[in-house]
Write a structure and sequence with these properties.
26% strand, homodimer, 35% helix, eight-stranded mixed sheet
Chain lengths: 403, 403
């Protein structure tokens, strides 16, 4: 008998039929003799509908009230899923995040889990019940409900798996695992049976949207065995492992593309100590999330600083960049919304040389021009024209023999 | 400066526009220098939609899970109403029933309030905030959410008014007060400026649906000043008072009709001690709510027992009555769904004779036949054919000079 935490996303519980299908799967896992704890997201579009409702009465609603509102979505789905299990004769009980003992900090709408007191969950498991927990929420020190932000249900599931010392944490989603790249872009995309935490982290943060990064970080930190699989198909998914020597032969594991960014360049800023710090401090003040940063070599005491940001932060970034340009007496500011970031990820890169040159050559052969480059130990990201992104993914997928 | 508890029903907060109108009213009450605590029901049809959702996955969902589900409705409306107040620059905070310190027993879906710890509400009022509380819910001894059943938001409001020692409890609804009878049936119906608790209790339990009976009982017990008024019109409502000598001249205060009942008769049951007890004990076992009970005089050691029940309890009542008929060797069971109960209510009846004969004569003059009669100190109820109900209301309204 194992203890298994399962997480089902919003599309997996979108209506009564989906609920029954998910309940059937949970019931089978329970019947196989396992202790089962389930974390569930809000049904289908509920979260978006609640956000819209809030915006009808307030242009920028208070965070604490937003959390009070949003938490209702998962409360609804968790109780309905529990009823669907009852209908199959499966003993089950629903719990809100606070009832399940999930404690968070006070950062409403983007709270972090500070601890879990799993006493009530243990008690229910002891009675032989499946426990269905509302994802993405917990209790603040002030006894308010806080949400963990989008993707927070994954985090709830992994944190619970760690607290309950579960044997496995299964993330059910609308894809059946982690792919070498997006199958909608590249027909040769292949499902991976296993991938390391580090690799999936790079893929997740690069727009492959398989798992929420924080959930993978927690899984890595607490050694939770993670698995991504389809809630619609009955096929094996992708296991996320801590590290695997057999993988070291493989250089590149996946290709990710992110078309949701734009590029900002500050031209001709003084190349003196503290300038870069000032630039990114100011951007942080304006709540701009900066992703890639590239600074070119200095010429005549001046340099260009380029960085990428999410398209949604563009307006705030413009304000900040204009301020900076004036204060630093820069030669100008450029905004380029017509970009995409394409990355290759693989733990094998660490010990293989020539990956970058192979990447750049393959793109050059197809006339794809590279605008920015940024590298880490296990990934190389480039910025290219947005309309070349899909082609670049296909070229690289083939070039690194991922078919 | 007064402390005022206001309650807004589901139709008063059905959409964003309604929310803003209600928020405006609350804001004005606050601006006038009052401490304001608001109890709100779920938006429009939310409660019915959640019930339907539950029934799509389970024919008779578990009570504890139903409460977990239903409580989300008021959680949504309370946070959205709070946002609407923020949009007007009015300081406000939402609380669920549990957060507001409302404690209940463990009788899920029909819980009773066992106590209120208003510390958190007091604290928020101390900060100058309007407090918006999710109606109809509280926390059980097992730290679960329980609902008070339909109409429970009225009860929440009155119980909070008692616990907070509020100066007034205003129930905003889609009618502008308590009427002498239903204006849709009788065009001469007149709004009452004042009515006693006892009278409104009889009217409420008789189908006039102005206020939930339990809320009036609590108001009476704790001396809460209650007022019913329209959330759409700005006109004075009806005050509910503890008793008023000026009223004693008036014999009858209101006429109520209830078309949601049916009549059951057990024919020829033995007229021996314990039989009636056995009958109503069995009905209670089958969860049948019995309203009027009439037992005729005995003939040759046998008697007929008739009682009325809500139409919704008919199926369970049939099972119980068939069992009883067999066990008691009765001569048969009759079910009549084609009835209505019409009642006249007035505290003045206590000291006036001839009310009953005046009632019966008026009906007889219009050829309306009476099937059952039941009386209390301040009311007389009769059962008549359902299609005569509206006419009976008009006849009695005129006869007792309520125009």
């Amino acid at each position: 008998m194992a203890r298994i935490v399962q997480k089902y996303g919003g599309s997996s519980v979108a209506d009564a039929d989906c609920m029954r299908r998910v309940a059937q799967r949970i019931h089978e896992t329970r019947e196989a003799g396992n202790d089962v704890v389930v974390v569930v997201s809000a049904m289908g579009d509920t979260t978006d509908e609640l956000i819209q409702l809030a915006q009808e009465v307030h242009a920028s609603p208070d965070d604490r009230e937003m959390d009070q509102l949003m938490a209702a979505g998962e409360q609804i789905s968790s109780s309905v899923l529990t009823m669907a299990l009852h209908a199959m004769g499966c003993e089950a009980v629903s719990m809100t995040g606070p009832q399940a003992g999930i404690r968070t900090d006070a950062a409403h709408t983007r709270a972090k889990i500070t601890g879990i007191d799993p006493a009530r969950v243990h008690q229910a498991l002891g009675f032989g019940r499946v426990v269905i927990i509302a994802g993405f929420q917990g209790l603040t020190p002030a006894s308010d409900v806080a949400t963990l932000g989008r993707g927070g249900s994954d985090t709830t599931a992994v944190a619970l798996a760690a607290a309950l010392e579960a044997d496995k944490c299964q993330i059910f989603t609308d894809v059946d695992g982690v792919y070498t790249t997006d199958p909608r872009i590249c027909s040769g995309a292949r499902k991976l049976d296993r991938i390391t935490c580090d690799e999936v982290l790079e893929l997740a943060s690069l727009g492959a949207k398989v798992l929420h990064s924080r959930s993978v970080e927690i899984a890595k930190k607490y050694g939770v065995r993670l698995e991504v699989l389809s809630s619609f198909k009955r096929s094996p998914g992708t296991e996320i492992v801590e590290g695997d020597s057999s993988m070291e032969d493989v250089v590149v594991r996946g290709i990710a593309a992110d078309k949701g960014q734009c590029k900002v360049t500050l031209h001709g800023v003084p190349d003196s100590p503290g300038v870069a710090a000032r630039v990114f401090h100011r951007l942080a003040d304006h709540d701009v999330n900066v992703d890639m940063i590239v600074q070119n070599v200095s010429e005549e005491g001046h340099t260009n600083i380029s960085f990428t940001i999410p398209v949604s932060d563009m307006k705030r970034a413009k304000t900040a960049a204009d301020e900076l340009s004036r204060e630093l007496e820069a030669q100008g500011v450029d905004f380029d919304e017509d970009i995409a970031k394409v990355s290759i990820v693989g733990i094998g890169m660490k010990s293989h040389s020539g990956v970058a040159s192979r990447m750049f050559s393959a793109l050059a052969e197809h006339g794809i021009n590279i605008g920015m480059i940024s590298t880490s130990e296990i990934k190389i990201s480039i910025v290219i024209a947005r309309d070349s992104a899909d082609e670049a993914v296909r070229v690289l997928h083939k070039s690194f023999e991922l078919e």
